[in-house]
């Protein structure tokens, strides 16, 4: 039983002494030659396995892209329909406001009042959108040059 310095376990006993098993020193095997068929087969299996893994990942990416495209298409259709109905609702609201105001101020004045109010609302919305757009790019610029 051979003990190497610094390889003792707690209590000062070596592994061999604690386990009661004698460990024989293994002789170093010579390295395999380049012509060894087992190495060539292992490398061939490794390459084939890598190809299979890459093909599987590519197939998964295709399936994932198809699912995302289908969901995006559905979202786009329903978002477009929502915008169409929103515009129709706003038009009906404007026409109703004109009809409601016409008996009190006349048809021309009702049209001008409703058009003016609509333009003011559009300007306010555009200014809010502009501020949000500027804020977005200012925050992005800060993040890029950040601390």
Task: Please give the structural blueprint.
Elements: H1 15-19, H2 37-105, H3 107-145
Helix pairs in contact: 2-3
Describe the structure.
Helix 2 packs antiparallel against helix 3 (107-145). The chain is built from three helices and no strands. The two termini are 62 Å apart. Helix content is 77%, strand content 0%. The longest helix is centred in the middle third of the chain and has 69 residues, at 37-105. It has one domain. It has 147 residues and is mainly α.
Could you give the order of the helices and strands?
A: HHH
Q: How many beta-strand runs?
A: 0
Question: What is the percent of helical residues?
Answer: over 70%
SS element count, helices = 3
What structural class do you assign from the helix and strand content?
mainly alpha
The low-confidence parts are none
Largest sheet: none
Radius of gyration, taken over Cα atoms and rounded to an integer in Å = 39 Å
Shape: elongated
Overall mean pLDDT stands at 82
Structurally, the number of domains stands at 1
Which percent band covers the strand fraction? under 5%
Distance between the termini: 62 Å
Kindly report the oligomeric state of this protein.
Answer: single chain
Question: Which labels suit this protein?
Answer:
mainly alpha; 3 helices
Summarize the structure.
This protein has 147 residues and is mostly helical.
